[in-house]
């Protein structure tokens, strides 16, 4: 009996040590961004689930923000540190729906972030009413706001797997993540071969032709109401709105699929709500240069820097990148877009 008891004590001690090692390693790397420390083991962070990761950061770290940047995965590589005069947090998440934005704004304000400015990156694919919303932020918020959740994750072997990958990438300087963050929440897409990029672009064009630009496309009947709700519920907050760039082949596909009237209607609704929009989704020096993109619609971080500069009315190298469009200039702008797309289609 004494031998059996001693064996159990040793086993329990080993288990406790293993749990402490796993928990300590997960805390040190912090792949879910629930804490606020930086070290050589977490310099590179995988984008695991940005809805949870970014919400944990807003809820529990000591960082205080007075501005948000909202958008899809395209906008994740717009550097929040490029905006002067505000403490910006990039709350962009993949495959976002227009219905999600207000929930992220409310969550940030609930956790003490008084918002003076919201920079809103809009994507044409979110105007498709037949594209069903698949992510519901309230489900993530319920998980994040469980006071024990971030400590439970420290004991998770799933978290340990992410921690190991992040630590390995940080120490060995490997490019194993499609989109990675540093500890200052600056994101970038990995560089890939031209052959791999060509395959990604072909896949994107097939998907957009069959889904986002398909004959079944219907313009989102409540899109403008969602935009207006953001303005109405945040009367003391300034908005800067931009339309994200995509590559020339994807723009040309939009025209070929006869979606230009919907694109026109979309821009008009944005301007009616916000008074103006920076339109990067045109034929310009950036969108015709595929080297500036990871695939057909995700741009590299250097393009994100150009967007941030243009939104602050700074000069950018490509003079035709990001035109400010208002009600007064709308008709001329749309005619220029139409003519450029017609020229590319010939």
What would a concise description of this structure say?
By secondary structure, the protein is α/β, with parallel strands linked by helices. The protein is built from twelve helices and nine strands. It has a six-stranded mixed β-sheet with strand order 3-2-4-7-8-9, covered by helices on one side.
Considering the chains and any ligands shown, give keywords for the structure:
single chain; 346 residues; alpha/beta; Rossmann fold; 6-stranded mixed sheet; 9 strands; globular
Number of domains: 1
Radius of gyration: 23 Å
Count of strand segments: 9
**Could you state the CATH homologous superfamily?**
SGNH hydrolase
CATH names the topology as: Rossmann fold
Per DSSP, what share of the residues sits in E-state strands of 2 or more residues? 5-15%
| Computed structural class | alpha/beta
Question: Main sheet: which strands, in order across?
Answer: 3-2-4-7-8-9
Describe the structure in your own words.
With 346 residues, the chain is of the alpha/beta class. It has one domain: Rossmann fold, CATH 3.40.50.1110. It contains twelve helices and nine strands. It has helices at residues 2-29, 50-60, 101-110, 137-144, 149-152, 157-172, 194-212, 223-233, 248-256, 260-274, 301-311, 330-345, and strands spanning 45-46, 67-70, 88-90, 117-122, 179-181, 187-189, 238-243, 276-279, 323-326. Strands 3-2-4-7-8-9 form a six-stranded mixed beta sheet, covered by helices on one side. A three-stranded antiparallel beta sheet has the order 1-5-6, covered by helices on one side. The model has no long low-confidence stretch (mean pLDDT 92).
């Amino acid at each position: 009996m004494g031998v059996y008891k001693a064996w159990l004590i040793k086993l329990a001690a080993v288990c406790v040590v293993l749990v402490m090692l796993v928990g300590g390693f997960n805390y040190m790397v912090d792949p879910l961004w629930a804490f606020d420390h930086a070290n050589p083991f977490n310099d590179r962070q995988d984008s695991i689930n940005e809805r949870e990761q970014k919400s944990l950061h807003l809820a529990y770290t000591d960082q205080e923000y007075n501005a948000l940047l909202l958008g899809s995965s395209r906008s994740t590589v717009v550097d929040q540190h490029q905006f002067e005069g505000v403490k910006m947090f990039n709350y962009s998440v993949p495959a976002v729906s227009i219905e999600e934005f207000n929930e992220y704004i409310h969550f940030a304000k609930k956790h003490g972030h008084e918002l003076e400015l919201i920079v809103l990156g809009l994507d044409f694919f979110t105007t498709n009413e037949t594209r069903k919303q698949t992510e519901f932020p309230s489900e993530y918020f319920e998980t994040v706001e469980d006071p024990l959740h971030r400590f439970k994750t420290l004991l998770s072997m799933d978290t340990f797997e992410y921690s190991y990958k992040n630590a390995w990438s940080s120490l060995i300087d490997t490019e194993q993540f499609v989109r990675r963050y540093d500890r200052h929440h600056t994101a970038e897409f990995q560089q890939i071969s031209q052959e791999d990029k060509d395959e990604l672009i072909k896949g994107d064009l097939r998907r957009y032709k069959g889904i986002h630009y398909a004959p079944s496309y219907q313009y989102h009947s409540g899109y403008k109401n969602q935009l207006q709700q953001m303005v109405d519920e945040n009367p003391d907050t300034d908005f800067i709105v931009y339309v994200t760039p995509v590559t020339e082949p994807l723009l040309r596909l939009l025209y070929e699929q006869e979606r230009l009237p919907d694109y026109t209607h979309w821009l008009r609704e944005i301007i009616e709500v916000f008074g103006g929009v920076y339109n990067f989704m045109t034929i310009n020096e950036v969108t015709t240069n595929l080297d500036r993109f990871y695939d057909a619609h995700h741009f590299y971080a250097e393009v994100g820097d150009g967007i941030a500069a243009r939104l602050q009315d700074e000069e950018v190298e490509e003079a035709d990148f990001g035109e400010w469009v208002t009600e007064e200039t709308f008709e001329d702008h749309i005619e220029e877009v139409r003519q450029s797309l017609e020229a590319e289609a010939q």
